[in-house]
């Protein structure tokens, strides 16, 4: 019987600025055993998506926050009953009801406290009582009403619909696939004009120019009833914003509201880099399994240049100017599905040569795409490089990652007719691989001339450095 | 194109293959002089001679064993079991030798065993069975169960062309009851490609052989009740078209797996399990099976009717799913 005390699992702090996280997926369910450090759940914050390891060995006694919900850092997510403790296994029935989609609200605390491991009594079905739901169909077979089939659960999760608010036409009032599809298509059915329908009144998100007081709701048929998402217009599809998207949206807006963005661009003759890269590629690949990308070259040249431009590697903190003797280089990484962006950081990039930088970039990019980044990997950046040139774009004005002072953009490497001087000092046209490089800087701290000088020096490095400088 | 019965389509297909490929020959009990118990090979001996249409002694072991040897030597034998039930005598040759030969020695066994199967005519326990699931379970064997004249002909050509031992289950109940247009020219129908016998939106029936028609009639009844039923005819049970089945399940979210063979360990169980594994999140109701009860096939007409899934049984199963 109960030996140890219950271990709480809380929403971890995934970075200083992060205040909340979303439960993406529980990897264990109630009643399952788990080892310490075994992955218990996946969470998503506006910085990283990651797995949360179990703080102890035992049985998952209680899951308090359901998938899809967003809670503050420090919120208790689950309880682990240490080995020997009575697993608080819910009966299958109850387990079904606990299904996230059905559950109206988590209602955490309350019921939880009671089942300290010593009170051998499994807390069983007490907790989740069904949502009222428009009466009508209630024909006695309670079970049918609460059972949510796999396909209905999936559709509900995909559309963020609370199944409890749908009128079911299946056996015992069960919500069928047709019911939920019709619900989504048409918005909630005009509730069976019942006097009793207390549709859980959401603080109606948008209701423009609030016409009447909310208590009038039930009678106003189609419009206000909208319990959950706003209905899609013809030809439109609605999908909920995930935590990463929300994070990006918030950060982009805040950055533009904070910094005075200005972008300068410079054209760089990459002949030398191309030649060095050609030379190094095979041996890097063979000896280290690393591809010396152009991004690594530019990164190396930029990090070196930043040494002479501390303000560009700096930060405005209140009315202080922060400079550093190190460069933590952020690299913007597009996630595989094109639906997200994350900026993992290479710490102390000034200590890395070309090989080290190329390897680090490959590593963080791979881990970003595999969702294997640790919270630390996305924090503490002092300067960022973004590389949207892969698709051929030759110019852009990226948004600064706050609270940094600058972001370097690298664009497509294009062969261009270029005026150079021949051995006699005459101008001649040559074909040269040219890359546009931009610096978007916060004009509050960095002036145009400084930015120009910085870009000039980056160009000089790229155009003049020999292999040994990298 | 000409209207042919299911039996004529098989006969035509076999004749066509024998005309185009000298390696193809037929062997079985009474297939020569008598033209076969069901007259599939009527007139064959006259056309192809006694060496290509061989009357065998009453020994399925000898027939299938001889075919295995002939196939190893480069021939394309087509054996006829007078009734599918008797194939059990040839189990060892099929399962131990023919099915494993290519794996063991790398030598193909291009052989077809024709198996008149199924009940519905009071044939009793020795003349009515549908043993496809037993053989579908054996790696190395393929199992074909055509439901229409057109498929019967095209699938037979594919079976004869196939370099593996193929069990070709022809349903006796369909032999002369089913008539449809069949192309006169030669054609093949690939194995492992299901055919949507009837399109529908609300419930999928996964079935094969004679049950395709039972399902279709039941679907017709349900249509009157405004329930739209899709009937997927697997055509070949091994290989079977998982993709088509899963696609149909994803569309309708409710499935009835139907077969004439007995229930326990029937091939429907494999299909149901696959759906549960791979389409779980598409399901809106438990996967339902309708099959014969676990008993020998009875002689008595009323009992046999109770044994083989009937249109009414299937229709009420569909109604249950629709209401779920």
Tell me what you see in this structure:
The complex is a heterodimer of chains A (470) and B (324). Chain A is built from 10 helices and 18 strands. In chain A, a hairpin with a 6-residue loop joins strand 13 and strand 14 (341-342). Helix content of chain A is 25%, strand content 21%. With 324 residues, chain B is α/β, with parallel strands linked by helices. Helix content of chain B is 38%, strand content 20%. Chain B is built from 11 helices and 14 strands. Chain B has helices at 6-20, 44-48, 60-72, 91-105, 132-136, 149-161, 211-224, 242-252, 267-278, 301-307, 311-323, and strands at 2-5, 24-28, 53-55, 76-80, 112-117, 142-144, 166-171, 179-182, 195-198, 203-207, 229-233, 236-238, 255-262, 288-292. In chain B, strand 2, helix 2 and strand 3 (53-55) form a beta-alpha-beta unit. In chain B, helix 1 runs parallel beside helix 6, helix 7 crosses helix 11 and helix 8 (242-252) crosses helix 9 (267-278). The longest helix of chain B is centred in the N-terminal third of the chain and has 15 residues, at 6-20. Chain B is globular, with a radius of gyration of 19 Å. The chains are: A alpha+beta (470), B alpha/beta (324).
């Amino acid at each position: 019987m109960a030996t140890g005390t219950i271990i709480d699992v809380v929403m971890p702090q995934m970075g200083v600025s992060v205040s909340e996280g979303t439960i993406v997926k529980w990897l264990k369910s109630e009643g399952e055993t788990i080892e310490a450090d075994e992955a218990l759940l996946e969470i998503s914050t506006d910085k990283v998506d990651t797995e949360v390891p179990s703080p102890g060995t035992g049985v998952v006694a209680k899951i308090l926050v359901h998938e899809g919900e967003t809670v503050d850092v420090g919120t208790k997510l689950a309880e682990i009953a240490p080995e020997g403790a009575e697993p608080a296994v819910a009966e299958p029935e109850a387990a079904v009801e606990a299904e996230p989609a059905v559950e109206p609200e988590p209602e955490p605390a309350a019921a939880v406290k009671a089942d300290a491991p010593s009170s051998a009594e499994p807390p069983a079905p007490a907790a989740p009582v069904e949502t009222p739901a428009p009466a009508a169909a209630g024909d006695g077979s309670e079970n049918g009403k609460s059972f949510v089939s796999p396909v209905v659960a999936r559709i509900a999760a995909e559309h963020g619909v609370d199944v409890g608010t749908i009128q079911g036409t299946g056996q015992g009032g069960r919500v069928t696939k047709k019911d939920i599809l019709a619900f989504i298509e048409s918005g909630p059915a005009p509730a069976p004009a019942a006097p009793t329908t207390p549709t859980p009144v959401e603080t109606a998100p948008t209701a423009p120019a609030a016409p009447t007081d909310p208590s009038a709701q039930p009678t106003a048929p189609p419009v206000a009833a909208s319990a959950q998402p706003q209905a899609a217009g013809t030809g439109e599809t609605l999908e909920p914003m995930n935590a990463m998207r929300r994070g990006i949206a918030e950060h982009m807006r805040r950055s533009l509201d904070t910094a005075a963005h200005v972008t300068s661009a410079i054209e760089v003759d990459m002949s030398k880099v191309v030649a060095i890269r050609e030379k190094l590629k095979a041996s890097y690949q063979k000896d280290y399994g690393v591809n010396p990308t152009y991004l690594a070259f530019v990164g190396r040249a930029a990090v070196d240049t930043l040494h002479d431009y501390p303000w560009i590697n700096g930060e405005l903190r209140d009315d202080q100017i922060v400079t550093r003797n190190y460069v933590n280089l952020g690299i913007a990484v597009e996630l595989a599905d094109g639906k997200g962006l994350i900026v993992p950081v290479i710490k102390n990039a000034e200590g890395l040569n070309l090989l080290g930088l190329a390897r680090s970039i490959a590593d963080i990019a791979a881990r970003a795409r595999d969702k294997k980044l640790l919270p630390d990997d996305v924090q503490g950046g002092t300067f960022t490089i973004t590389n949207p040139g892969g698709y051929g774009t030759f110019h852009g004005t990226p948004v600064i990652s706050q609270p940094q002072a600058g972001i370097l953009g690298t664009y497509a490497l294009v062969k261009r007719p270029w005026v150079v001087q021949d051995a006699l000092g005459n101008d001649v046209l040559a074909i040269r691989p040219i890359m546009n490089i931009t610096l978007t800087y916060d004009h509050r701290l960095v002036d145009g001339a400084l930015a120009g000088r910085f870009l000039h020096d980056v160009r000089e490095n790229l155009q003049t450095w020999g292999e040994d400088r990298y | 194109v000409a209207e042919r019965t299911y039996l004529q389509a098989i006969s035509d297909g076999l004749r066509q293959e024998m005309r185009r490929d000298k390696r193809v020959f037929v062997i079985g009990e009474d297939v020569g002089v008598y033209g076969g118990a069901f007259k599939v090979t009527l007139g064959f001996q006259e056309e192809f001679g006694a060496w290509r249409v061989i009357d065998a002694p009453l020994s399925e072991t000898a027939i299938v064993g001889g075919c295995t040897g002939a196939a190893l030597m480069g021939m394309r034998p087509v054996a006829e079991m007078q009734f599918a039930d008797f194939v059990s005598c040839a189990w060892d040759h099929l399962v131990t030798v023919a099915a494993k030969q290519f794996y063991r020695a790398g030598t193909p066994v291009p052989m077809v065993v024709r198996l008149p199967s199924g009940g519905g005519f009071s044939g009793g326990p020795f003349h009515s069975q549908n043993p496809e699931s037993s053989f579908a379970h054996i790696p190395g064997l393929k199992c074909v169960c055509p439901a229409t004249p057109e498929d019967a002909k095209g699938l037979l050509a594919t079976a004869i062309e196939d370099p593996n031992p193929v069990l070709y289950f022809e349903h006796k109940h369909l032999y002369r009851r089913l008539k449809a247009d069949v192309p006169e020219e030669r054609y093949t129908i690939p194995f492992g490609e299901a055919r949507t016998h009837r399109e529908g939106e609300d419930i999928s029936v996964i079935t094969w052989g004679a049950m395709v028609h039972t399902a279709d009639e039941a679907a017709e009844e349900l249509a009157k009740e405004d329930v739209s039923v899709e009937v997927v005819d697997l055509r070949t049970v091994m290989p079977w078209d998982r993709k088509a089945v899963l696609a149909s399940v994803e569309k309708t979210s409710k499935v009835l797996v139907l077969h004439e063979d007995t229930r326990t360990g029937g091939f429907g169980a494999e299909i149901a399990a696959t759906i549960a594994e791979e389409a779980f999140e598409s399901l809106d109701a438990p996967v339902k099976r309708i099959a014969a009860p676990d008993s020998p096939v009875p002689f008595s007409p009323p009992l046999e009717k109770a044994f083989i899934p009937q249109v009414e049984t299937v229709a009420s199963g569909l109604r249950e799913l629709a209401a779920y």
